[in-house]
């Protein structure tokens, strides 16, 4: 994964770790100590403000942490910079809290972290703390020793590093920075309309199908969810009152792993789709979507219940399963690295506007087809919308509606060769 960072692109390299049982116990102890430290630092700030209206600064807590390490062997056994990262994480939480307050919002106060929400150790200067051997088969972690890692692509020079526990597995994440590597210009431009039936319809006629990963994995996820419910006894209010610890821990691990595999399958397809798009076009026009509003629940309140709640919940599930937001994010990240241009355009009435005459009418949209009520232009509804998005991206802001000139691209049927081999999705031309 990549993102823009201080004029460069930040890349995260994730590698599987295979610690021994003894090393795993040490890692769990480090997670427990750093979590206790975070909660203690938060409690100190809360108490100081509620009792004395005094603000404890990170500078004060930094020096108190030094004194604590001198008398507490448990804290002294954890790498100091990892504990400094805990203090920095708390600072970021308070900074976000006060920033939202200034904006007039109602944020929640920073909360204590349970064990289920604390799963990583951060090393701000990972190149000094984590040492890879010459063959990159083992990584030496302070306080843990040399841990075997999965052999894969070579890890480049890195800065920050993390050790993460997720779904019963350990990972090392290395952060590196790269400069842009522009792709050669080809002058091609594309508009993209995202949907549920077709994940991405391109204005040249290429359709990237929605693999519907969630529906394919739902049976397995529901099976593990029922297995978890079978070993968890709940009270009338839904609170856990009796738990078979070992059985429940195993059930939670299996459920987490099933959900992780589902997410990996979705991410894999979206990476391939975004790479296909960025490699071929200089300018990419995306519709600006408010996904949080699109996936908002329709339940309403007791006094004012919502309408068509079941249909809306199914639509929300399908929207989230398609991964609209992740696809746009991956396109932007890859485009930034390749020096491609991404433009987000207003998507209003794009499904009702004719790509030929620019006439807007609600009656032109007929389910999956678009037939203009003025000029008779007929096309696939998603394809027509994608061409409208491209024309809006190409139109200067000062140009009046209806005067934009957009070139209609020829279908790119060669998309089959790269993505069509996957068993959970394909491309086709319409």
Tell me what you see in this structure.
The protein has twelve helices and 19 strands. It starts with a strand and ends with a strand. By secondary structure, the chain is α+β, with helices and mostly antiparallel strands. The strands form four sheets. Strands 1, 2, 3, 4, 5, 6, 7 and 8 form an eight-stranded antiparallel β-sheet that branches. It has a six-stranded mixed β-sheet with strand order 15-14-9-10-11-19, with helices on both faces. The radius of gyration is 26 Å and the shape is globular. The protein folds into two domains: 2-178, no CATH class; 189-212 and 250-429, no CATH class. A hairpin with a 5-residue loop joins strand 12 and strand 13 (240-243). Helix 2 runs antiparallel to helix 4 (80-102).
List the helices and strands and how they pair.
Blueprint lengths: L1 E4 L2 E11 L2 H32 L5 H14 L1 H4 L3 H23 L17 E4 L2 H4 L1 E2 L5 E4 L3 E5 L11 E6 L2 E10 L10 E6 L3 E5 L3 E4 L3 H18 L1 E3 L5 E4 L1 H36 L2 E6 L2 H4 L14 H14 L1 H15 L2 E6 L18 E2 L2 E3 L6 E3 H14 L21 H4 L7 E3 L1
Helix pairs in contact: 1-4, 2-4, 6-7, 7-10
């Amino acid at each position: 994964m990549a993102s823009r960072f201080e004029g460069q692109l930040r890349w995260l390299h994730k590698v599987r770790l295979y610690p021994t049982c003894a090393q795993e116990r040490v890692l769990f102890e480090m997670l427990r100590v750093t979590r206790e430290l975070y909660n203690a630092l938060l409690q100190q700030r809360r108490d100081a403000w509620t009792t004395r209206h005094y603000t404890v600064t990170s500078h004060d807590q930094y020096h108190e942490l030094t004194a604590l390490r001198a008398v507490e062997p448990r804290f002294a056994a954890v790498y100091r910079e990892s504990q400094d990262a805990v203090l920095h994480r708390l600072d970021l939480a308070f900074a976000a809290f006060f920033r939202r307050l200034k904006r007039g919002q109602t944020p929640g106060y920073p909360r204590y972290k349970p064990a289920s929400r604390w799963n990583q150790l951060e090393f701000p200067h990972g190149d000094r703390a984590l040492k890879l051997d010459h063959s990159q088969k083992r990584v030496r972690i302070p306080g843990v020793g040399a841990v075997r890692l999965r052999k894969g692509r070579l890890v480049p020079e890195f800065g920050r590093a993390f050790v993460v526990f997720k779904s019963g597995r350990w990972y090392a994440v290395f952060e590196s920075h790269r400069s842009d590597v522009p792709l050669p210009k080809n002058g091609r431009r594309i508009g993209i309309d995202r949907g549920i039936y077709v994940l991405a319809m391109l204005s040249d006629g290429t359709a990237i199908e929605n693999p519907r990963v969630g529906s394919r994995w739902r049976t397995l996820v529901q099976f593990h969810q029922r297995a978890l419910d079978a070993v968890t006894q709940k009270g009338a209010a839904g609170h856990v009152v009796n738990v078979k610890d070992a059985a429940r821990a195993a059930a939670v691990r299996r459920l987490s792993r099933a959900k992780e595999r589902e997410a990996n399958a979705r991410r894999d397809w979206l990476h391939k789709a975004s790479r296909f798009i960025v490699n071929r076009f200089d300018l990419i026009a995306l519709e600006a979507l408010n996904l949080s509003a699109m996936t908002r629940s329709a339940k309403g309140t007791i006094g004012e219940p919502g309408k068509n709640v079941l249909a809306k919940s199914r639509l929300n599930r399908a929207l989230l399963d398609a991964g609209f937001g992740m696809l746009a994010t991956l396109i932007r990240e890859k485009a930034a690295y390749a020096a491609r241009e991404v433009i987000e355009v207003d998507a209003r009435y794009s499904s009702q506007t004719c790509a030929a005459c620019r006439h807007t009418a609600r009656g032109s949209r007929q389910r999956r087809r678009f037939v203009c009520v003025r000029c008779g232009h007929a096309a696939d509804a998603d394809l027509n919308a994608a061409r409208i998005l491209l024309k809006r991206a190409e139109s200067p802001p000062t140009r009046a509606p209806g005067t934009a000139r957009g070139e209609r691209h020829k279908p790119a049927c060669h998309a089959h060769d790269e993505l069509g081999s996957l068993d959970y999705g394909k491309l086709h031309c319409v």
